[in-house]
UniProtKB/TrEMBL annotation, chain A:
It holds the Pfam family FAS1_DH_region. The lineage of its organism: Bacteria, Bacillati, Bacillota, Bacilli, Bacillales. It comes from Neobacillus niacini. This is Acyl dehydratase. Residues 5-131 form the FAS1-like dehydratase domain. InterPro entries: FAS1-like_DH_region, HadA-like, HotDog_dom_sf. It comes from the Bacteria.
From TrEMBL, chain B:
Residues 9-113 form the MaoC-like domain. This is Acyl dehydratase. It comes from Neobacillus niacini. Pfam families: MaoC_dehydratas. Transmembrane segments: none annotated. GO terms for biological process: fatty acid biosynthetic process. GO terms for molecular function: fatty acid synthase activity. One of its GO terms (cellular component) is fatty acid synthase complex. Signal peptide: none annotated.
Length: 149, 133
């Protein structure tokens, strides 16, 4: 059921690296460094602005992948990667979208485990990919059975 | 500020030990990240999911781990950050964050990073590729 979604991509959604959101996020991971929220520290830095923590793209809206119905319960986050061309700068706008990269099943302790790999991207206005990320989501056989009912 | 550049292969950044994980930490992360999966905040939901209690968002721990590199923002940036989630983090767990320099190629520093709980078990493991300017 997930195999058919491989290669499908979401619509692009505009996201803003919001000043308040960056500060709140940095606070929530105990990383309240001035480079993330103090305007003067940002101005005086080599980025001439405040930047966002590396895992901040977790907060973005990546649109909807048609046909992909992931339950909001029973999923296990197996792996996560981020790749950056440069740090994200406070105030900038990014067009974000996701794609189903692959799906496979492996025998595990709890039956056949499904592994869904989602790749996400953030582009600037000129279409340059500034960051990409991959999330590997593990879906147990029990959860998949409920989905197909 | 430039201690990262003086680091030799095999040496580690100064470890960070987090305060015991509290429910409010996870409620704050849920709000800041938008991940409201209730197994991270509500006991009954965690139990319904077969867990002994609420567990931290994997991304909360991954987010915390990255702060080992924050002080070096003038020297470079985290170009690649990859993590495998190895174990669950429960309330009151005491997590220690570690990074060891494995390799230097040109202006790229490859670190092995991990988060370990109070029993010495790895809860998260991966790599950071730090690119120097």
């Amino acid at each position: 059921m997930f195999n058919e979604t491989v290669g499908k991509r979401s619509n692009k959604v505009k996201n803003v690296v919001e000043r308040g959101a960056v500060k709140k996020f940095a606070e929530s991971i105990g990383d309240l460094h001035p480079i993330y929220f103090d305007e003067e520290a940002g101005r005086n830095s080599r980025y001439k602005n405040n930047i966002a923590p590396p895992t901040f793209p977790r907060t973005f809206d990546y649109g909807v992948i048609e046909g992909l119905n992931l339950p909001n319960k029973g999923l296990i986050h197996g792996e996560q990667t981020f790749h950056y061309k440069r740090p994200l700068v406070v105030g900038e706008e990014l067009l974000c979208y996701s794609e189903v990269k692959k799906y496979f099943e492996k025998k595990g302790n709890f039956g056949d485990m499904g592994f869904l790999v989602l790749e996400s991207f953030g582009e600037d206005a000129a279409g340059n990919v500034i960051f990409s990320s991959t999330s590997t989501v593990v879906i147990s056989e029990a959860v998949r059975k409920v989905l197909t009912k | 500020m430039s201690t990262l550049l003086q680091l030799q292969v095999g040496e580690s950044l100064k470890e960070i030990q987090l305060d015991p994980v509290s429910r409010i930490d996870l409620i704050k992360y849920a709000g800041a990240s938008g991940d409201f999966n209730p197994i991270h905040t509500i006991d009954e939901e965690a139990k319904k999911a077969g867990l002994p209690g609420i567990i931290a968002h994997g991304m909360w721990t991954m987010g915390n781990l990255a702060k080992l590199f924050t002080p070096y923002f003038e020297d470079g940036f985290v170009q690649d950050y990859s993590i495998r989630f190895k174990g669950m983090v429960f309330l009151n767990d005491v997590i220690t964050l570690k990074a060891t320099l494995k390799e230097v190629v040109d202006n790229k520093l490859r670190f092995q990073v991990q988060a370990v709980n109070q029993n010495g078990n790895e809860v998260l493991k991966g790599e950071v590729l730090f690119t120097q300017f």
